[in-house]
Specification:
This protein is mainly α. Helices cover 67% and strands 0% of the residues.
Length: 457
């Protein structure tokens, strides 16, 4: 058995802590303190243990993360009053000081420095995970995928417990009673997490050491996770499940083909019919017992949904007011409430834009938009390279899938602001950055690459 490196032990410990307490994005939940302390302790242990990051293949993702940290830090630098007053969107603060008869102090770009400081501190999690992931041995990345799949399965079991009607009061996240969200505070974030599991199920089945029926097991696992997404009530999750299933089948095509070829023609028909009947039966039961919340919510418009839709023009208007400097990362809530129209006032409030593509520009301004564009360009270029590679590099394709699914989910919510998904994105970025291997003659080359000689990471 291969001896595991200290870097793998540290990233494993941190991921377990993140699974327990890293499912919320709010600054005031107890889990934030736990995950950040854990991240700093892991970082200190890595440095004292002589672990130095190997950024040869991850220069651009590391540079983008460093640039983001620098941008947020610059938003906290106090500016002289004449310069600060000239910034867009600060007129109301200037008038408030004049009415109060106070002189303008030196102020930072951020309209709420405490919230921006929280955003800055949150980035210790992806930074540490990226740091450690570059130190893993090639075979440890495959083990890391197995660990992630196990954590996703544990979330699915928690969701199943909630599905039966049991209420779980999570001490580390701001979960909502009767909402199926497992170890997350938000049903949409759980749906994305489970969609990662669909991709991972098919990828794991492609391992050459797995039995011939591994493809069938991947289908059953994907169906179970898909039903979990259905139960969450996340309508965006339905789209994510479909995309994840398509990607998963593309990744596990060889395993599925092997599983089918090992069966007789009659057994193939029976197996396909059994899986279809199983899925149809579960869907029928879920809908009959009013447990398919995602389907129910497709045809209904809740108060929260109505607020999100009606608020979008005002979100864009506020974004323009603060552009090109931005309001400061983490400040969407107070920035929006300053300009919130009277007709939208209600006991419900908009804590996020529920579109992270918009919110990054809202908070980061032109520089935030530039960093977002650079990240998207890197993702598209790398994904095009790995998906057209005849060698079928598995880990880079999984990394592309995880990041792509998060990008889709971010058009409807803000999953990348949760520590657990931040960490997974850092790992996915390392995988997607892997140096490409040469095509091999073996039909299972992609599977063997996962086990032994995955490209340098």
């Amino acid at each position: 058995m291969t001896r595991l490196t200290p870097a793998f032990a540290l990233v494993t410990a941190l991921l377990i802590v993140l699974w327990l307490a890293g499912g919320a994005s709010r600054a005031d939940v107890m889990g934030q303190a736990l995950v950040r302390v854990a991240a700093w302790l892991v970082l200190i242990a890595a440095i004292l243990g002589g672990q130095t990051p190997d950024l040869r293949n991850t220069r651009l993702p590391a540079a983008l993360l460093a640039a983001t940290i620098a941008l947020i830090a610059l938003q906290l630098v106090p500016l002289p009053p004449p310069l600060w007053i000239a910034l867009p969107g600060r007129e109301i603060f200037v008038r408030a000081a004049e009415v109060a008869g106070e002189t303008q102090p030196w102020r930072p770009i951020s309209i709420s420095p405490a919230l921006t400081l929280n955003s800055l501190m949150s980035l210790v999690v992806p930074a540490v995970v990226l740091y450690l992931a570059t130190r893993l041995e090639p075979n440890e990345h495959w083990r890391l995928l197995k660990l992630i799949a196990a954590l996703i399965a544990a979330s699915a079991l928690l969701a199943l417990t909630e599905f039966t009607g049991q209420s779980l009061d999570h001490p580390f996240v701001n979960d909502i009673p009767k909402m199926i969200s497992a170890n997350f505070a938000n049903r949409n974030h759980l749906a994305l997490w489970l969609s990662f599991g669909i991709v991972a199920s098919f990828a794991l089945a492609s391992d050459g050491r797995m039995p011939k029926w591994a493809g069938v097991a991947a289908i059953v696992s994907a169906v179970f996770l898909g039903l979990g997404i259905l139960a969450t009530g996340s309508r965006a999750g339905l789209l994510l499940a479909l995309v994840a299933a398509i990607i998963g089948v593309a990744l596990g095509r060889d395993a599925l083909s092997t599983a089918l070829k090992s069966l007789s023609p009659r057994a193939r028909i029976v197996s396909v019919a059994a899986v279809g009947a199983f899925v149809a039966g579960l869907l029928t039961l879920a809908i009959s017992f009013d447990r398919a919340a995602s389907f129910d919510r497709v045809t209904t418009l809740s108060v929260e949904d109505d607020l999100r839709i009606r608020s979008q023009p005002f979100v864009i208007r506020t974004l323009v007011d603060y552009f090109p400097v931005g309001a400061g990362f983490g400040t969407f809530d107070p920035a929006y409430r300053i300009n919130e129209p009277d007709e939208l006032l209600s006991p419900k409030y908009l804590n996020r834009a529920h579109n992270d593509w918009v919110e990054v520009v809202f908070e980061g301004g032109l520089v935030g938009a530039a960093l977002l564009t650079a990240a998207l360009g890197w993702f598209l270029a790398q994904s095009y390279r790995v998906w057209r590679n005849e060698a079928k590099p598995m880990l880079p394709r999984i990394g592309s899938a995880f990041i792509g699914l998060t990008m889709i989910a971010s058009a409807f919510d803000y999953p990348a602001r949760t520590p657990l998904i931040m960490a997974l994105l850092a790992i996915a970025a390392v995988w997607l950055s892997a140096r490409q291997e040469r095509p091999r003659s073996s039909p299972r080359s992609s599977e063997s690459a996962l086990r032994t000689d995955e490209p340098s990471l």
